[in-house]
Design brief:
Layout (H helix, E strand, L loop, with lengths): L1 E8 L3 H10 L6 E4 L16 E2 L10 H19 L4 E2 L3 E5 L6 H12 L6 E4 H7 L7 E5 L3 E3 L1 H14 L3 E3 L4 E6 L4 E5 L3 E9 L5 H7 L8 E10 L11 E3 L11 E4 L5 E4 L3 E2 L17 H7 L8 E11 L11 E4 L6 E5 L5 H20 L9 H11 L7
Parallel strand pairs: 1-2, 1-12, 2-9, 5-14, 12-20
Antiparallel strand pairs: 3-8, 4-8, 5-7, 6-7, 10-11, 11-12, 13-16, 13-17, 13-18, 15-16, 19-20
Helix pairs in contact: 1-5, 1-8, 2-8
This protein binds flavin-adenine dinucleotide.
Amino acid sequence: MEEIDLLIVGGGVVGLACASAAARPGRTVCLLERHPRFGIETSTHNSGVIHAGIYYPPGSLKAALSVEGKEALYRFCARYEVPHRRCGKLIVAGPDDDIASLETLQARARANGVEDLALLDEAGLKRLEPHVRGSAALWSPSTGIVEAEALVRALRDAAERVDAALLPASELLEAKPGSERIEVRTTAERIAARAVVNAAGLDADVVSEMLGGQRFRIYPCRGEYAELIGPSQQLVSRPVYPMPAPTGEHLGIHVTPTTWGGVTIGPTIHYQDDKQDHERDRLPVEAFVESTRQLLPEVRPGDLRIGSTGIRAKLSEDPGAFSDFLIGLDPHQPRLIQAAGIDSPGLTACLAIARRVGMLADEVLDDVAAGPDRHSPQEERHHVFFPTDGKE
Ligand SMILES: Cc1cc2nc3c(=O)[nH]c(=O)nc-3n(C[C@H](O)[C@H](O)[C@H](O)COP(=O)(O)OP(=O)(O)OC[C@H]3O[C@@H](n4cnc5c(N)ncnc54)[C@H](O)[C@@H]3O)c2cc1C
């Protein structure tokens, strides 16, 4: 049986970022991913937006970690040459929307520490995006886009650089929690770990139960996309969102340019029972025409084709309810750290989530194994993984 300090279950952006953030000299860190490649579930099936932190209730983890995470992510992407663009985004009020709602959103963003939003009138909107229809808009300059596949690769490389053992094609099958360590059986081997991080995305509920942790349920919620094709891709150059629903977390079907020159339309929102069913009963492309034309009236039905899908790992089954990330020490299993319920903005927040998980791992492991000289190398590693812009 392999004896290690920290086991991370899940090789999406959250698990991979945790592997780097929790690595310390003298500490053995190992990550299990059931697929042969990392990040092929939710981490590469999303809109690729680096969120500013506008929508989430002040005081929530989603608000705090998107604000912290977006800046860390911009620095990480610049340092590791991950394609990204700090292009800003527009939230547009349509003819039936109350413009005062834009001010409410701006106030909420300010309470989250997002101070740079500006209200634009119709002329201001047209100057930025001439083809977008709207009577007013909220301009968010710190929003951006990132290439998720490249981000996964860079996070994997960063984790390997700090000697985390990354094990693809290794599924956690069963666990025997004990007071000093948790023993697990994977498809490949047996491992005993002094602490475990649950970053298992859609299966975080199954993994938590297996490890003797708290019971919760992950509700899979599919989001479907269409894509613009041909010259219509030139109609927009930055993400454009409608007004969000007054309650809940659905940001509305939006138009999002990708770093490689495409434009996605979506995602829709549909709760389903199956966590892995990406394709059954797909919406026809016609279902996207009206919402696209509300923002971009020049788009014709022939300008759209069906795109990809992603499945959100939600902690609530009520689309009108807000549910926060679940990050912390497990109340039942003292050797388990939860990083669960990581739906949007988890891509944006992955480095900030990892930073918290790294601190929690220090608490659980008490860092005895890291030895007396851990502080300076730890800081060095921290700066490699969370590069600063020199201002901090
Ligand atoms: C439609 C959609 C749009 C989104 N848009 C955005 C956006 O624009 N911006 C943003 O910030 N966020 C967005 N998100 C959210 C973001 O994609 C997620 O928050 C993020 O990818 C979560 O990463 P993760 O590592 O927690 O999960 P995952 O990527 O799902 O990784 C979990 C991993 O755990 C593995 N695993 C599970 N069980 C086991 C086991 N027993 N043994 C071994 N491995 C296991 C899985 O195989 C998987 O690879 C969106 C999500 C969706 C679905």
